[in-house]
Design goal:
5-stranded mixed β-sheet; 20 helices; Structural Genomics Hypothetical 15.5 Kd Protein In mrcA-pckA Intergenic Region, Chain A; nucleotide-binding; Tyr-tRNA-ligase_bac-type; alpha/beta; RNA-binding; Rossmann fold; 6-stranded mixed β-sheet; Tyrosyl-Transfer RNA Synthetase
RNA sequence: GGGGAGAUUCCAGAGUGGCCAAAUGGGGCAGACUGUAAAUCUGUUGCGAAAGCUUCGGAGGUUCGAAUCCUCCUCUCCCCA
């Protein structure tokens, strides 16, 4: 059994710990849990930090519990959110829980017969049948309102005047009870979470102490930040999801490739299981030749393989090479249809009748009216004038008509706006 | 309940009867430079080839002409009770 605390520490994944946890962990295999809120039907890369934390526990010989918040998701965690959340309906929630469960099984070992195989639990299972009256008698009795109000997450809402409903206020008690329940029935002694969860977790350890005089521990992981101060895990287009349907493996890989140098050095420790030596040599390599972006490439490879598998990674890599590589125009033309489609999976596509190309077309009209690649002619013209448009990797201008010669593979055409935006046209 | 301020193009924020598709800043997009980075510089940012058209919380009205004036409505914020 290896020292998981040490592991997390060098990876920059330790924010806060309750005293005694290190001894507790070194004196034998323990069970630790981390909760996921089913707010959407997929996890996003922000959740990956939690997943990795659990993974490190498992690799160190401890038993991880991944909790899906079927019950807590019905309430909404007020922690560090400025306004009351809208409640999701039960069907959505149920659907989300199922989706998240399926995703989690990819990352941790849930199936082996090892003693420390991961377990998946849903707090709905023990909360659903718990009557309100019983709950406030059995559990609520042990925690004072003063204690609950003193939490930063609650205090903030009271101070700034936005307030919070009783529903949200009671969230920490439900989460605290989860911990108690897992402690009591599954010998889970540690709760893991993001740094925003500290207050909620400690309510749990407090409950365990007051009800049973038992010991339980908290460990939190710092919130992942970006060096430029913007929010991690978001792009202009939205969250980076783990579900390939919501964020294509290509887009996913691209996200990591585009991470800044400073961030890459931090992220590679958090999001990959590469060893300390491997990471240090990558960092050294990157410093010697930053333009090769060894860190970003390794990061992209590791995380994409972890989330989507080797094959998807290779396709994403190939797509990247073709879209950003050197001899692209010829390479693009040489692709067979199958590879071509694989590479451009997830790229917006329009189907256009072949008839529209019987005559050479004015590029402005073709790119807007005919294909919808641009929302307005003005924009298409502007882009063409600025030299921002490429057709099949060849820079295009507004006087260059589009003809049949631009058709690839008998029916495709690749429109590129700027460096990173693609649009596919399929002739039918 | 009383009093006051306000709602402008993605955001912030000017404009207070024609010169306003609307200053300026931010953001976005693009180009150059690079490493698909950062920083920087440049261009661009309602639709339309143009004439022109649609836009300044909503609905009406005054006027040759309204983001700007009037009426009503909706919403937001502040102060007092």
């Amino acid at each position: 059994m290896s020292n998981v605390i040490e592991e997390l520490r060098w990876r920059g994944m330790l924010h806060d710990l309750t005293p005694g946890i290190e001894d507790h962990l070194t004196n034998g295999p323990r069970s630790a849990y981390l909760g996921f809120d089913p707010t959407a039907d997929s996890l996003h890369i922000g959740h990956l930090v939690g997943v990795m934390t659990l993974l490190h526990f498992q690799r160190s010989g401890h038993k991880p519990y991944a909790l899906v918040g079927g019950a807590t998701g019905m309430i909404g965690d007020p922690s560090f959110k400025s306004t009351e959340r809208n409640l999701l309906n039960k069907e959505t929630l149920q659907h989300n829980v199922e989706c998240i469960k399926r995703q989690l099984t990819k990352f941790l070992d849930f199936s082996s017969d090892k003693k420390n195989r991961a377990e998946l639990v849903n707090n709905y299972d023990w909360m659903a049948g718990y009557s309100f009256l019983d709950f406030i008698r059995d559990i609520g009795k042990h925690i004072t309102v003063n204690y609950m109000m003193a939490k930063d997450s609650v205090k903030k809402r009271l101070e700034d005047g936005s307030g919070l409903s009783f529903t949200e206020f009671s969230y920490q008690l439900i989460q605290g009870y989860d911990f108690y329940y897992l402690w009591k029935h599954h010998q889970v002694t540690i709760q893991l979470g993001g740094s925003d969860q500290w207050g909620n977790i400690v309510t749990g350890t407090e409950l365990i102490r007051r009800i049973e005089g038992g010991n339980a521990y908290a460990l939190t992981v710092p919130l992942v930040t970006k060096s430029d101060g913007t929010k991690f895990g978001k792009t202009e287009t939205g969250n980076i999801w783990l579900d390939a349907k919501k964020t294509s493996p290509y887009a996913f890989y691209q996200f990591w490739i585009n991470v800044s140098d400073d961030d890459a050095a931090r992220y590679i420790k958090i999001f990959t299981t590469l060893t300390k030596d491997e990471i240090e040599s990558l960092i050294a390599e990157h410093q010697k030749a930053p333009h090769h972006r060894a860190l970003q490439k390794a990061l992209g490879r590791e995380v994409t393989v972890l989330v989507h598998g080797l094959q998807e990674y290779q396709t994403a890599l190939k797509a990247t090479e073709i879209l950003f590589g050197k001899s692209s125009a010829e390479e693009l033309a040489s692709l067979d249809e199958k590879t071509f489609l694989q590479i451009f999976e997830g790229v917006p596509m329009a189907e256009v009748s072949k008839l529209s190309l019987h005559e050479p077309s004015d590029p402005v009209v073709f790119l807007t009216d005919v294909t919808g690649a641009f929302p307005s002619r003005g924009e298409a013209r502007r882009m063409l004038q600025q030299g921002a448009v490429q057709i099949n990797k060849i820079r295009w201008n507004e006087h260059q008509p589009v003809t049949k010669n631009q058709i690839l593979n008998g029916r495709y055409m690749l429109i590129q706006k700027g460096k990173k935006n693609y649009f596919l046209i399929k002739l039918v």
